[in-house]
Amino acid sequence: MDVLVCIKRVPAPGGKVLLSADGTSIDTRHLGFTIGPHEECAVEEAVRIVAEHGGSTTVLTAGPPEADEQLRYALSMGADHGVLVETGTRELDPQATATALTEAIRLLESESKPFDLVLFGNETADAGHYQVGVRVSRALGLPIVGGIKGIEIGTGRVSLQRDVADGVEVYDAPLPAAAAVKEGLNLPRYPSIKGRLRAKKSPVRTIRPEPSPGGLRTVRLRRPPEKEHETVVLGYGAEAAGAVVDVLAEKGLV
Amino acid sequence: MNTLPDRADVVVIGAGIVGNSLAHHLAQFGWRDIVLLDKGPLPDPGGSTGHASNFVFPVDHSKEITALTVDSMQQYEKLGTLTAPGGLELARNESRVEELKRRMASAKAWGIHAELLSPSAVAELVPYIDPSVIRLGFWTPSAAVVDPLQSGVLMREQAIALGALTVSANTAVLGIDTERGRVTKVRTDRGDIETPTVVVASGVWSPRIAAMAGARIPLTPAVHQMIDVGPIPELAETHTEVSFPLVRDMDALMYERQSGADLEIGSYAHRPILHDTEDIPSIEAAQLSPTQLPFTDDDFDPQMEDALELFPGILNAPGAGVRHAINGLLSVTPDGSPVLGETPEVAGLWSAAAVWIKEGPGVGRVLAEWMTHGTTEIDVHGADISRFYPHQRTAKHVRARAMEGYNKIYGIVHPSEQWESNRNQRLSPFHPREEALGARFFEVGGWERPHWYESNRHLLEEFAEHIDDRPHEWDARWWSPIIDAEHLAMRNRVAAIDLSAFAHFDVRGPGALDYVQRMAMAQVDKPVGKVIYTPVLDYRGGFRSDLTIVRRGEQEFRVITGGADGARDRKWFGDHVPDDGSVVLTDVTSAVATLGLWGPRARDVLSALTEQDVSAAAFPFGSARELTVDGVPVLALKISYVGDLGWELHAPFEQGLHLWDALFDAGAEHGIVPAGIGVYGTTGRLEKGYRLMGAELQSEYNPVEADLALPKVKSADFIGKEAYLKAREQDAAARLCTLTVDSHTDSGGTRRYPQPHSPVLTTSGDRIVDNAGRGSFVTSAGSAPSLGAYLLMSYLPPEHAVEGGSLLVEYMGERYPVTVARVGRTPLFDPDDRRMKA
Amino acid sequence: MLLVIVEEDAGGVSAASLEAVTCARHLAEGAGLDLHAAAFGAHGDLAAGLSKYGVSTLHLVTSESTREYSPELWGTALAELVEHTGATGVLAASTDRGTEILANAAASTEQPFASNCVAIEPGDPWTLTRQRGGGILLEDAELSGRVKLASLVAGSVEISEATATHEVDVLEFAPTPQATMPHSAIVDRTSRGSGVSLASARVVVSGGRGVGSAEGFAPLEELAELLGGAVGCSRVATNNGWRSHSDQVGLTGTKIGAELYIACGISGATQHWVGCMGAKTILAINTDPEAPLVARADYAVIGDVQEVLGAVLERLRARRAAA
């Protein structure tokens, strides 16, 4: 099984997002970067699948040269190869991202052989376009299901599971296939020291495609307005229990 | 959510370990109406206290840092927030083995139990270490892990219980108002507080807070990288936060400690990464906390390999990974010491910054004591914010020294090691000549002072019989036998010494006499033209300073003090100027260049350049005269710190170079040589038994013990008088003695030269402690070429302060026999001072 | 012509879809275009439900290959319908399926798609506002293309009827069978059975760091059961292994729309907030009065979770026993 995982360099969560003065990008001065949680699960899953079924894991990212850091993190988790699709520091629209990824994957596949499984995060933690994985898969002619929280590799087929509002759905697809996965698929490992040292020394390949822009153009970013409101403090400790029950009663819950 | 009082006796800004401890101790000392503010939430407001590694190794080469640490450990223990698994400092290479032996001497000097352990003994204590990587371990059983956040909670609770403290978290300070140089008000986003006293205990934010009042706290935030690796089964099995000893892998500049199932690894080996206080993210914008910045892998990776080498087993445990990694911010100062005390710029504005977790509670207590009584039990002059001259408080200097000093945190630092960055800031007018003469410059207070001159190398031959070379590199580092040669040339002929680093204050006005009387222990009400040497005491009767005062007129005095302590003395004198305008204190340091001229031929040289009578009768020892020396107006003082005939010549700064050239021209036929501070500060003065501020003279000792008590006590009041009188009535707990080293040869046959801070032991090797609890250690050490001896100074309790008595000194892991050559101040060289008075 | 995908809920058009219809009508009116709707595998009478909302035609996609859900096949069918009808814009609600179908259709037609929009204005290009990072940020953007596709976040548009009611023409559309296209197929579906789903629960009792342990969730479970709600948790609780990921409320977990959200010992990082901000009323229980979620909550109790919940449960049990 040769597994490809597409990841994205995104700001680590935790802090309030500050915007650049012109509002077209976020202020990254104080930010650390990470792989989005969905994609971290994708890397973990790929490493586990390869450990069980053999083959290799390739991680690929489209982004600025600094995304090398995220590739190396994935390598330190156990991925075998890293590919940086260098698309500059400005964020691409989803069509352009998909084109860049598709071109890069075609190039990689033309040099060796097609990947058996391609994993994406369900949506990126920052832009959240919910479509890059679908566009790439469809361009490559791969079936793809989103929201995946369980993957089972069968003979020539893969079984994919996802949560829906009222239960669980199981999909079946022929290999090669793709899936857009969600956090909860597994619990990603922390990179071992050896893994980190190995990752540091691993070569990372760089591809520089030149995709043309798609139809979605960002004008500016802004923070949603905070609703002005007062918090009603019902009380302190156990003494507040009466007031809590009153609220529940008011809502018709008791 | 909480309301602030509109006035307070003191506002402490910052609820880290220092602010909490300070609030607690102020309450204990009887302060009420204390307000403690923090911009962040409690108990972890987001400063360095919240992400520190929290371990405490008590032994430091610095006596004051060790004292603060030991005090802190006692406080942590009392709060129940200390666990002591013990700590190991490891040597991988030979120079570190030597350093650990030196550390052993420091442990002994400061009275902390420690042992040197073989690699296999280390591996018994920490089974997951690979002993083949190391050569020696330094084991401190009392090394501990503490919980500073919980300690802070308890300290606040105690102060609140006393009704002394209001705490306000999530409160940002917007400004600090001053009036006529005094703090009046703290403005916050939750209201204003009128207060006469503000303490900046704001860690890495301290420069920003101090700047609101117009003061500078010289520190810079710097990154310290930390990672957590786990889970590790061997550690998890202990079911404790920490059971295994803490490890400092000194040569890798790293530490490793158990933290539950994880091994926490921290590093001081990576490139210095400095931040601007202004660039620290806000609490909101920070991903973890404002002082836990995103980890930068590239900087840490080399250390990872070092860690893997030392702990191969557990760091490769299956499933163990890097669970947490940060670039933590901590405060770094230009000289690595804390920044404590009232700022020189703004009265009532105190600094409590650049403090490690290990010193936090002690610093709080010491500062509270200082704020309450004006003086401290532990001598903290090395941490006093007023030690910095103005240029040393600039961002440029702070950054340059922090950059240079960062990797010294775990480095092997020779006690005389010189800084390389931001040098050549304060140059005497003689500097071009000194450079041409091959001066080796040492820095004091930013001044470049020749320590010796390579141009004098030829003297080594002349005095070969009287000069010992030092075969061991460590003993000879930052030293040259030329110092001894310059010394002998001075004793035989005459030498000129650049003393322009002295600080000079003019005191004038109707209240001048009363004022200097109050400052000085000695009688200053002497006839015009007299020079008075005097200790300056603190309120507890310990040494604050020692200096020279010249009476230049009925209402005019010149105070001359050493360059090392000039800035501190400037603040001390400035703080005590009366409010009534009767005294004007002017710092004239930058206007005066000073050249010392000493030696049996000094009078021959000087008299060739002046028409005035400089004979002993006309210009007696201990007096001052205005001379014209080759047309240069000079204030000449007939005194000597090196014990020879001669003068301190104080000239207008811009005529200094002319004075130098004139003296060297006239001195040529008398064999004049330039001599460095090696002679002035060590060899010359040690032979004469002269004490040095910061070495022998510390606030923890009094004039009786230093044998600087005067025959009579003046009737005028002076600071420390009460304590001084008391000390005179009591038997001294220790007396300052001069010792000679009887044998220099170590077990390998190499001659060694014990350095300051070496512990002085009984002949059976026991530590010597006086009845005030102070251990005996070497305060100064150096050769006495005119005596053919190597001298040490040390305070000894009465039973050992016996001339002719035998003792031992421990140095670099070995012991050397010494003899008490002198008890008290009478010089070993020229005991009757005939040379100076000739 | 603009096309809007409608999903079924209890035999009628879902509320989220009616929002999309309202938004699409606004766009159609602004451009003087017709408004059509499309539905996959519908069972109920959707046409009747749409007549008041300005939809002139409903396309029912019916074929053997699209009978069961398949993202690729449904998306391809939609693309074919778009070409067939000449639609210049397609809207759907930002549901899992709505988003997935639009993404697939956008991929098939190679046209742009803006997901998670909260507002769209007519014109060419469309000017729109979409959510990033689950709503942490808003992005003002322009969408231009031969066919524009967009999905609309539930709750962003107030549903409104058209000025006039029209009979809705119903047309069946049978897409071309995709015999060779590799695609996934749904093979199993298990229903949650009993228990209330987190996304749709009226009450969610959720716990974070302040709960302290897996066992610490017992009173939360009891309270949820008493109130007929579901138990949720923060990322801290999931990462500590106290709860399974399916209970996680937040950006990478479930976004809830409960009547009441009871947050126990959750400080409320932005990533959590975007998961619970859809709740009508928030009650936060936390020892830290300055915690972000306390500041954003409607009601707050300052105190230890176990202590507060213990007292609340005692009262509720007493009430129940009395009743």
CATH class of chain A: Alpha Beta
User: Unreliable segments of chain A (pLDDT under 50, ≥5 consecutive)?
Assistant: none
- CATH class annotation of one domain in chain B: Alpha Beta
Report the count of strand segments of chain A. 13
Helix/strand-derived class of chain B?
alpha+beta
Write down the Rg of chain A. 21 Å
What distance lies between the first and last C-alpha atoms of chain B, to the nearest angstrom?
Answer: 78 Å
Strand composition percent of chain A? 25-35%
Largest sheet geometry of chain B: 9 strands, mixed
Q: Give the amount of beta strand of chain B, in percent.
A: 25-35%
**Shape of chain B from CA axes?**
globular
Q: Which sequence of SSEs, written as H and E, runs from N to C of chain A?
A: EEEHEHEHEHEEEEHEEEH
Radius of gyration of chain B: 28 Å
Compute the separation of the termini of chain A in Å.
55 Å
Q: How confident is the prediction overall: mean pLDDT of chain B?
A: 95
The CATH superfamily name of chain A is HUPs
Going by CATH, the homologous superfamily of one domain in chain B would be D-Amino Acid Oxidase, subunit A, domain 2
CATH topology name of one domain in chain B, in short, is D-Amino Acid Oxidase, Chain A, domain 2
CATH architecture of one domain in chain B: 2-Layer Sandwich
**Gross morphology of chain A:** globular
Keywords (chain C): FAD, Flavoprotein
Subunit structure (chain C): Heterodimer of an alpha and a beta subunit.
InterPro entries (chain C): DHS-like_NAD/FAD-binding_dom, ETF_a/b_N, ETF_a/FixB, ETF_asu_C, Rossmann-like_a/b/a_fold
Function (chain C): The electron transfer flavoprotein serves as a specific electron acceptor for other dehydrogenases. It transfers the electrons to the main respiratory chain via ETF-ubiquinone oxidoreductase (ETF dehydrogenase).
